[in-house]
Amino acid sequence: MLIIPADLLAAIVPFFRVFICKSIKDKPSKQELLKMLLQEFHYELPEHLIAQYPLERRTDSRLLCLNAATGSVEHCVFSEIIEYLQPEDLLIFNDTRVIPARLYGEKDTGGKVEILIERTLSNNLIVAQVRASKSPKPGTILHFRAQTSEKESKQRTLKAKVTGKQGDFFVLEFLSESKFSETLAEFGHVPLPPYIKRPDEPLDGERYQTVYASHEGAVAAPTAGLHFDQELLKAINSKGIEQAFLTLHVAAATFQPVRVGNVLEHKMHKETMEVNEQVCKKVNDCKARGGRVIAIGTTTVRSLESAASGGKLNPFRGDTNIFIYPGFEFQIVDAMVTNFHLPESTLLMLVSAFTDKEMLLGAYHEAIAKNYRFFSYGDAMFIYKS
Known about the structure:
The protein is of the alpha+beta class. The chain has two domains: 47-98 and 204-384, 3-Layer(aba) Sandwich (QueA-like); 102-187, Thrombin, subunit H, CATH 2.40.10. The protein is built from ten helices and 19 strands. The chain has helices at residues 6-26, 30-39, 150-153, 180-187, 204-207, 230-238, 277-288, 298-306, 346-354, 357-369, and strands at residues 62-67, 73-77, 90-94, 96-98, 102-107, 112-122, 125-132, 141-145, 157-166, 169-174, 215-218, 242-248, 271-275, 293-296, 308-309, 312-313, 316-320, 335-339, 380-384. Strands 2-1-19-18-14-3-12-13-17 form a nine-stranded mixed beta sheet, covered by helices on one side. A six-stranded antiparallel β-barrel has the order 5-6-7-10-9-8.
């Protein structure tokens, strides 16, 4: 039995008390640990690598090819993606079309206001983000001017009435007898993402749109598809590789940051999508013959996995708020084409779920070292496992 002299015990007890208290104090709280979980998806990106304009040719973008099974990385230009495709493959594209969803105007008081449409409820009734010095109250009238010549803009105006709120968004009614699409064509701007630090320009009307866009409704582009031109699509088809199209209207909330420390508590926004029977047949036939289903973009990934059940793809039409993060079991997607995504974003989490997170961030760091261009108008990745 160890006996400690009283004088020595008196000397060391305060030390242990301080040590124990300090240890308890320094131990991260549950909230801090959960915040660290979000920080696991963080990386530092030099601002000059955020692409502000598209390249002259869509297929001239660079392509980082990541083998998720081995971790090997190869670098090429996007037009060379065809060398990574196999005749048994099936490429799935999102054919949504971006609408001119950003409008600039003013309140009755003269205060500036900017709105970004989130989704359409009916012909002239919308849900939108509203930026103003003071949040508009129900009944407030907003005034917008047409984006034509200065002379015409003074003559052509549009009014919208704030009718209420839906969560963080405002419900607006356009006081116009015109079709909603005609109203936006005259008064709206291309809704460039917030990290593109410039006003929209005429070129954005074409380039912030895929060449196969056909169903209007998105307020952000499915950017992985921006790298394809008609020539490349024809070359892929000539190789005997099937293509199919689904629709998911990308919402403005896709750019909303994760505001909770525990990513599992994050509430995903809803987006409207449709997967028809023809797409389902192609996907299920591809699976049956042992081919790869290759999703072009994270919106396509979310659509396919939303409509999956029991390893099969089923017709689906409605809203999805699927949140894909590490640990998710993919049923349909075998490979994907995707752009580089913002740190700590749900899209980065989605791609991390498809491959190893550390492997993915390692590829991101390599892309940064090689001066790849990031985000919507930037370069792309092809991630595959076989």
